[in-house]
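can u do me a favor
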């Protein structure tokens, strides 16, 4: 006899924005009663692809707090009403900062790819998603973290620079800082941080996001094209430089860190990065 597998504590909610567009919220609520101040929260982009990994990482670690220093918390992963891991068209709009531009379709006869909707998505999270979560489970407003990978990392950093009080912790894995002529750096330069509220920022990248391909990629037929993209993206260097810049006492003076995931390519990073995000967002001491 077989039956469908479900994650205990998980639920699915479709939420409309003011235009009527629907995004899917995958929500995990821990067992037991919430602390008096509410649960800490880890919000995530690319929820369809990352939710299950994050929940399992939390369940495995929170069950053994003396060995992991990880406690329970709420995971809220935003995605789209699809069974696929990603919705490339919608995430291209939602996760990329303005002003954005228009690119050729992903598929023949498909719609043009538009970028630049990160402000709208950020406002949707602030005005609709966070209040909705608060109706489902008590949240500690002083312990909200935001995780994103790739475009999601770009979005997390954009949110840090444009709405720095929204999340106390930003976890940006393999962020595409180079995107659209490094426009994020201009947003960073304009950021205004309240020194009484200093978010912490954890940036990371994979070992094979520098100027060398992973060994298994070196013999593939698209090796030269991949190498050219790596060198253009400069993911490791841009993330390292941003972590150092944001930590400067004469600058933003934020709590920052950078981590390199050994042996990982761009698409291999999410799995170890999610485990680290759990440890950061739900740290006990």
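np, heres the sequence
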């Amino acid at each position: 006899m077989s039956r469908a597998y479900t994650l205990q504590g998980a639920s699915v909610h479709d939420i409309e924005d003011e235009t009527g567009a629907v995004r899917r919220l995958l929500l995990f609520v821990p067992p037991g009663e919430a602390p008096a101040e509410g649960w800490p929260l880890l919000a995530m982009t690319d929820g369809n692809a990352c939710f299950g990994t994050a929940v399992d990482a939390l369940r495995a670690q929170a069950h053994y707090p003396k060995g992991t220093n990880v406690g329970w918390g709420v995971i809220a992963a935003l995605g789209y009403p699809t069974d696929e891991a990603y919705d490339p068209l919608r995430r291209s709009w939602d996760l990329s900062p303005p002003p954005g531009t228009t690119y050729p379709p992903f598929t023949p006869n498909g719609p043009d790819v538009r970028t630049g909707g990160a402000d709208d998505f950020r406002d949707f999270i602030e005005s609709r998603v966070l209040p909705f979560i608060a109706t489902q489970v008590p949240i500690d407003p002083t312990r909200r973290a935001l995780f994103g990978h790739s475009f999601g990392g770009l979005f997390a950093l954009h949110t840090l620079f444009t709405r720095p009080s929204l999340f106390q912790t930003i976890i940006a894995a393999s962020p595409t800082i180079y995107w659209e002529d490094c426009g994020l750096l201009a947003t960073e330069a304009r950021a205004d941080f309240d020194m009484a509220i200093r978010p912490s920022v954890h940036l990371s990248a994979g070992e094979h996001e520098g100027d060398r391909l992973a060994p298994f990629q070196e013999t593939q037929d698209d090796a030269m094209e991949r190498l050219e993209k790596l060198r253009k993206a400069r993911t490791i260097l841009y993330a390292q430089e941003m972590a150092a810049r944001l930590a400067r006492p004469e600058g933003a003076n934020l709590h920052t860190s950078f981590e390199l995931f050994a042996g990982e390519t761009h698409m291999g990073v999410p799995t170890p990065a999610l485990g680290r995000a759990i440890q950061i967002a739900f740290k006990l001491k």
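The domain at 10-281 is CATH 3.40.50.1820 (Rossmann fold). hope that helps!!
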